[in-house]
Give the backbone structure.
Amino acid sequence: MAPERGSAAARTPRQDFPPRWVGKALKVAFACTHYAAVAAAALVAYFVSAHLLAAHSAGTLLPRLQAALDASHTLQASHLLAAAAAAALVGAVAALALRRRQPPVYLLDFECYRPEDKNKVTYNRFITGSRDSGFFDAAAMDFQTRILHKSGLSDETFFPPGLHLDPPEFDMAWARQEAELVMFNAVADLLAKTGLQPRQVDVLVVNCSLFNPTPSLSAMVIHHFGMRSDIDSYNLGGMGCSAGMIAVDLAAKMLRERSKGGYALVVSTENITQNWYHGNERSMLIPNTIFRMGSAAVLLTSKASERHRSKYELQHVVRVHLGADDAAYKCVFQRPDEGRFIGVELSKDLVGVAGRAMEVNMTRLGPLVLPWSEKLMFAANWVARRTLRLSVPKYVPDFKQAFNHFCLHAGGRGVVEGLSKQLGLGPRQMAPSANTLHWYGNTSSSTVWYSFGFVESVQGVRKGDIVWQIGFGSGFKCNSVVWRALRDVHTMHKAWQHIEGREGQALETLQRIAAETAAERQQKQVDATVTVAAHQRAAPAEAADAAAAKQLPKQGKEDTAPLPNGSQRANGGVRVLRNGKVVAPVS
């Protein structure tokens, strides 16, 4: 019999199947088996070595070897054919394995742009500038102010120069200036750091979702730095905040096509100037409060000679696109509002779509990165649900067993907190994305690189560590990139030099906002309870008044002249409201 709603059984949370402790036990068992095998191999090697040493000491080793060499063995033709066939089979398998193995791609280095302090936009500057622009009505300003104060952003994020003017300027010229500012500085710093010349770059991939001028952004980079005429150049537009991962994937594929190896430059950015929405629709106002100026430049190589100074090796790229589904396709949608102001609309389906996209991505990524203990747990849960038809919750693998560092897309406070909760991350693992959101806001596709920079600058990376970058974008897309550290890395990036002594400020801010939000929610529940109780106490009195009104004697025809507040005039001049309550005689 199913438990009743509200009963203790109904409120009991469903337990994982298999229990989490089974996975830990399997992990320990696999580790013990591994160490036991190593110990057994060492023991066998010890006994063989001891036996050979004893034979040599006794003077019997060399005579035995000489006798074995002098012994004549006649090989039959069938033996020779079998040996030749085996050698051919081994050679074919080895050739196939080498052919299927993709050439390695290395991350030489990357750089995140740190704007000048004059471009900082404080809360007060944002609110004052938005109000003085004259674009927003009172309701829109109130909404943006409330969202901003709960966004988790600091007073030290950055707006492009055009939006600092009074009135703001957001035409093509100012948009180009922003693009040049963020891209050229990031690329110049990266080339200086790596010692690479612009004409050594073989592949260039630039991604920017909402600003796509002619000539393209990639052409702007080529022209500014004087790159070669035979460079493979690509410009990715309209692909949302996950386009940085797509750009890495494209660059890696282009490098693998080069037999002698090469260098690929990836530039990820977003343009704020022309995409600052100045209408009043709430679904389009949220990007105004969280999107900020930023850019990242990344240098990849497939040259084996560069492995010794590269930081990471590319392990996996997993891409998911749910564009065939209507809700997923339209959940992040650029369109004009009723006043013909163009903005990006965030639908109410966004959270659900993002969760579904991430689930699909993790399902595909899991077999590539998870340890065998987690794979077996997932398989057992799948068999229990699909084959045995048991009513058990879906098992969510522990990805902390696969990754050492997490660079989540800092799309907003809800995204950072939601993903961290879903993955079961602790404060240290959540810190890179939380600090990116706090100090830089949502810089679109470059957020995962700002988070990576925080990891290198503040936390440090050890040789062999696995780093996971995951981004979400319109369409709807969820893309993952996995890196393996080739050496210890603890490098202070220019983008994070300002954080010294303030490393915990971002997490403290998120905790404070979460506590305030919980208190407000609790107060609303209390207010709602008080209101319901008041209505319940007033209901008997209203019922009695209604009954009294029905018992009044009828004196002629009812006066149907309308009265204020939807009331009516009953016989005898009595005023009766729509709920039937008698208020007072009308003279």
Summary: Confidence is low (pLDDT under 50) at residues 1-14, 556-587. The CA atoms of residues 558 and 571 lie 5 Å apart. The first helix runs from residue 8 to 11. The first strand starts at residue 106 and ends at 112.
